[in-house]
Amino acid sequence: MAHIKKKLEAEISAAFIKFQRDLVGRGPQEAKTYIINDMIITRFKGVLTVEEKHLIKNEDGKKIVKQMRQILREMYSEEHESIVQNLTGCKVLSSHSDISTKTGERIEIFIIEKDLEKCMDNNS
Questions:
Q1: Angle at 117 (CA atoms; ends 81, 110), nearest 5 degrees
Q2: Sequence spans of domains, the chain
Q3: Which listed site, 14, 15, 17, 63, has its alpha carbon 20 to 30 Å from 23?
Q4: What is the pLDDT of residues 86-110, one digit of tens each?
């Protein structure tokens, strides 16, 4: 089970990195996905562009970066959810995202229709 879970987590991370690179020309420096019960959580490190790193040096800039990233995420939420659905075979019920201008990390959380971790346990 652990092998199957780790493989799926790695596939999800790789798919998100590819999507981000295709979308904006660069992806995060690192991505790690965790399957926990009925949640898929992906943590991205090193997501800020050079321009965003300059902007976050003041409060207005931080707000602009967070707002821009939120708008982009909303524009492409269906694509994000499709990545999870296609790789897991589970319907996404909701998804959530946030970026930290302090650490340069972004987190994506997907709530899926079933406890995928338990299903993987049962199939092993």
A1: 20
A2: 2-123
A3: 63
A4: 999 999 999 999 999 999 999 999 9
- What strands lie across the sheet with 30-36, from one edge to the other? 30-36, 39-45, 105-112, 92-100
Global pTM reads: 0.90
3-state secondary structure string, the chain?
A: CHHHHHHHHHHHHHHHHHHHHHHHCCCCCEEEEEEECCEEEEEEECCCCHHHHHHCCCHHHHHHHHHHHHHHHHHCHHHHHHHHHHHHCCCEEEEEEEEECCCCEEEEEEEECCCHHHHHHHHC
Banded model confidence at residue 71, pLDDT cuts 50, 70, 90: very high
